[in-house]
Task: structure prediction
Amino acid sequence: MVTLKEIELAHDRIRSFIHRTPILTNKSLNELSGASLYFKCENFQKGGAFKIRGATNTVEQLTQAEIEKGVVTTSSGNHGAALSMAVTRRGGGTKVVMPNNTPKIKINNVERNGGEVVWCEPEQSSRESVLADLVEQTGAIVVHPYNDERIVAGQGTCAKELMEDEPNLDMIICPVSGGGLLSGTLLAAKGMKPEIMVYGAEPSEADDAYRSLQKGEIVANETIETICDGLRAQIGTIPFPIIQKYVDGIITVTETEIIEAMKMVWERMKIIAEPSSVITLGALLKSKDKFSGKKVGLILSGGNVDLNQLPW
Amino acid sequence: MVTLKEIELAHDRIRSFIHRTPILTNKSLNELSGASLYFKCENFQKGGAFKIRGATNTVEQLTQAEIEKGVVTTSSGNHGAALSMAVTRRGGGTKVVMPNNTPKIKINNVERNGGEVVWCEPEQSSRESVLADLVEQTGAIVVHPYNDERIVAGQGTCAKELMEDEPNLDMIICPVSGGGLLSGTLLAAKGMKPEIMVYGAEPSEADDAYRSLQKGEIVANETIETICDGLRAQIGTIPFPIIQKYVDGIITVTETEIIEAMKMVWERMKIIAEPSSVITLGALLKSKDKFSGKKVGLILSGGNVDLNQLPW
Result:
């Protein structure tokens, strides 16, 4: 299992390639929630999302020979762009298997960073079979978006920064999809402060992490009909046991609650955050009692939204 | 005429009531423009716009007896909300004459800050006659949104902060409507660094400042058919001579150019800025040669956008 030490090493490895993103506060949202909120703004990260952390940590550990074979992945978009950025910098090529319903901004981000898009159907099975075919054809190295210890360690650097800048936090809320960010957050936050409580926020319409925890084993998503295009993946076998061991709960959030939270963040904070990240505020607002009077860190994981397809 | 000394005094007077807003940079927009851009983010200011600066500077100088009479103004929205905030804090009441086509977010901001909205037609003549009636009926004190030296001095504190934080700027671009912000910016920036160049950015569809400068006297807007709801006012008699004396030029920007600039700011910077403020980027991008290789400050004056009525 990844340790805090590996997150610290990852941070040293990637520090010069990423932004140290700001932590924003907002008086009006504090009043509304009855808590003190600290938003870790990965929407301002390079590539518009936290994904550059894990991707860079992994790509920096590849050999030159591996880079020359080329790198492939599946991605709802943000990981693909981040991986392309990290691989392009090392002089390699990247192929990204992406669902054909991906927002255009995320496609553009992959291409702008030197990646090549390979289309698949939105279902997990299609993602995997198209990826397997690519690997067979090209011999390229797979960098999985979350089911990889190097990715988990890289994503953990986000919560490490948050804890360094706001050591008095009582709780953190983090989105959960494949589990890379949540497992990294758990290891960093609880490694640095064992008594902190960490919650996952997951769409009710793609609640595999919530149900997997209840059942004690990984179960599949029953639907992925959520506007959170970054939260439709299946929880991974590497993140799952970390989440099982450490998480204090998963809060599921409806589509309406996600959209309301998104409007609040946009209108009151004047920042662009994607549905997959404002879900943390949605989780807090639907469970106000749990967080009342506390200092709560919310990880805004990204800001890549198709402005022509807003959900209101 | 207002001096730098009065802007300094204004800053001391209002400092504890406002945010010192951040200055953001963006690599991708630097590459696109060929210049180094420094965005002064008044969209993160209290009330979502720079207007709190001038309003607070004015209201803090009113006597208690004046406050008790009540305060009135006309406003496209941001000044009304800012004035309401400043007057409410001193225990007084505010009436704001607003055009009946004002975005809902700006109406809500007035009401949330304790102000009362009084409707008028969008034309300048209607704004003025409704205001005059109100003053006659109530004896309230008028705090004009821009044609007031206290307002000009207050708005100048924005450029003062920008120059303090980025003393190496070569140029500044600032939106122009009634002229309060631009005249304050000119006095602060050129007072602190005489060789700096300062440009106004104005919608082609509400270009009274541009034409007034050409003619050497104030002329009326021929149209106000612009999405920049904060830039439809008529240039004021107090700001005009300051602008005449100091400005290095007014750049007029089409509606299409404004919308393109707005999408760029939203997509690449992940911040919400209103059309009336992204016009500064539109002005820069249409006159790239003028700014090429320079360090340019762009004043993003506000971020109050009706998310249900986006221009794309």
